[in-house]
Amino acid sequence: CFCDALRRAGSPIVLVSDIAATTSYRRTQLPSEAPSPRGAPCPQAVLPQLHAYHRAAPKTGQKMAKLVIILVASVSTYTLSRSSVLPNPKRSCTTLKATGGATSEATAATLIGDANAKLFDAATLKVLDSLAALGQGHLFEGWPDAGQDDAGKKKLGEALRKTDAAYAGGLPAYVTKARALLEASQRGDNPFDGFSPSIPDGETLTFGGQKMAAMEEEGLVAARKTGFVLVAGGLGERLGYEGIKLELPVELATGKSFLELYVDYVLAVQDRARKDSGDASLVIPLAIMTSDDTDAKTRELLKEKGDFGAAPGQISIIKQDKVAALQDATAALALDPSDRWELLTKPHGHGDVHALMKTSNTAQEWLSKGIEHVFFFQDTNPLVLHTVLPALGVSRSRNFAMNSVCVPRRGGEAAGAITKLASTDGDASKDLVINVEYNQLEPLLLAATGKGDINDDSGYSPYPGNANVLVLGLKEYVQTINGRDSGVVDEFVNPKYKDAAKCEFKKPTRLECMMQDYPKLLRREVSSAKVGFTTFERFVAFSPAKNDLEAARSASKQGEPPGAAGSCEYEVYAAHASRLGLAEKGVYSKTRDVSGLTGLYGGPRIVLLPSFALTQADVSSKVSSDGLKLADDSTLVLEGPHIRIESLSLNGGLTIVNARDDATLVVRDAAVSNAGVAFTDIADADLPSSKPFEKIRGYKAEDKGSLRVEVPGPGHWVLTGKGDLKKVGDKAEL
Known about the structure:
Layout: H1 2-8, H2 13-19, H3 46-56, H4 61-74, H5 93-99, H6 109-112, H7 114-117, H8 122-133, H9 150-166, H10 170-187, E1 195-198, E2 202-204, H11 210-222, E3 226-231, H12 258-277, E4 286-290, H13 295-304, E5 315-319, E6 323-324, E7 326-328, E8 335-336, E9 339-343, E10 345-346, H14 352-359, H15 362-368, E11 373-378, H16 388-398, E12 402-407, E13 417-423, E14 432-436, H17 438-449, E15 465-473, H18 474-481, E16 492-493, E17 504-509, E18 511-512, H19 518-525, E19 531-535, H20 538-541, H21 549-557, H22 565-579, E20 591-594, E21 597-601, E22 605-608, H23 616-622, E23 628-630, E24 635-639, E25 643-645, E26 648-651, E27 653-657, E28 663-673, E29 677-681, H24 692-695, E30 699-703, E31 707-710, E32 715-721, E33 724-729
Parallel strand pairs: 2-19, 3-4, 3-11, 4-5, 12-19, 22-24, 23-26, 24-27, 25-28, 26-28, 27-31, 28-32
Antiparallel strand pairs: 1-13, 6-10, 7-17, 8-9, 11-15, 12-15, 13-14, 16-18, 20-21, 29-30, 32-33
Helix pairs in contact: 3-4, 8-9, 11-16, 15-18, 18-19
């Protein structure tokens, strides 16, 4: 070895072999590793020791620097460029637990040298110091002297500072929580040990039932003082779509995007609230939680579409930040494998929405404006809009501080369940009504009843399925998020371990949080708050678009819900057909197979937009079901509040729009027939070249000549005959 040759020649390299094993440089040395006077490998491990020696012994630095130059010139396998990927040192889980993660060097300067430390401002250096004291010294391993890769060092420092600032309590709190949760994970702790499960208090509403109708009417009153929060931090990657999910069309009959539909609904609720209350200035606010992945495109979409008609300031955006990734069970912060100066970060979860509602001051502002309830919903479940008013009605009538929207679930179904948990020590202040994942519910029920999660006489589990939709009382909400936890819901960690030792991960993980875990915060701050649920039939409330076409086809073959963009679309049609009395609870007399998805709704494609009807009572008062005759492959779209259908025969496509407040339209003795809208499957070979929103569905829609009728002016109008629009009065017949 070249080093040995220098040593035999009496070169100063002898000094290197002596310092190579000193603990003053080997900051990651484990107690079991004994120093060796000739322990420096050649040449890769020598140069870092020379850097350390140069900092420690400045008088000899000139001679040592010359030696460094000789080594670099002579050994082509090593360079001083530290921007390349460097392997993270092995970390001992045992050692970390014994030391609590502390190091003997409590500042960053002792790890990277004073000159490197001077590259950072005081705020960044404070963060680096805290990480050094927390045993995160691997972040600073192998740093070259100041003047080399300074831009990379600053990039890492800035990333650490921003990540620290974005998390309540900073990175020290994050790392401390992570270590506690990882230790619990290694032990296999059950977070619900010490609790006994039972069926919680709530309401079950049936479509067409009297209670459902009553709660919709009650909800119209509550809606006057309700704000909406749309959780939209995820991209459409799981759907096979590269953009934001909010820009995707809900269905192809109208082409309206998810975001447009949601804003339409908020505006429809606002119009109704203004009419019912007589307050023309009333505003229903909408907040959208975005992420680094979705923020820019969401803002661009809103700007391009003029906020879809919302007033300036009516829509606000709150953006969540990512959290640091963890590389092993010691909670070591992970660096990007392709760039040692890049901190690896991951999404924290939709539970961030509560902390953001605090830090953005959105919740407090809404409370000051008289808002009483907040409706939280997610981005690609359009049927959730059917639950808004009845769920609000239940919350108002039952005085629920938290109301979870639920759907029926089978015993053992892989879905979370709303469960009441009573503390086995008899302390009622610990009791919870909260979502429990199915794999945690089963052992709890077995221990308590010996029977597990089984169906009751209804054919479903008595523990309703969590739809991840919440109605929260704003007064209690503000009190809770202003409490000691600042809206940061209890987190969890879900590492995938490499082996039984449970120290190394298959890939980096992170702490996660879910918005439905809010009851844990609520219990601490408002222990007397009532928490319940409202269950709706699935065809009314739940049809998320989440799976790509391949996964959806596989699920369909196994008789499971496909959960795809296409199946979501047809379930929207089925729900609206049910509201018109053309289908029975989402089931039509025929089914259709669409692009490999079998057994989908086979009736007419019907879209009742929010401006047409908000409640079932609205639909019933505007449409005579006995007067409808729609061909199976027809398409009907109704938009606008002042439309009434007395008798309509349709074989083709018909869109009726009445956006005017000074006009009414009646469809009477109309028989419309045309080529309509053709829905056709796309061959798999052609999918790659298809439009992205068609590719994820596996089919396309083409207007072959459907009829669009739009009321052109004030007055009373009749649509009759083959689709003739006639004005029959100068005044609207409201």
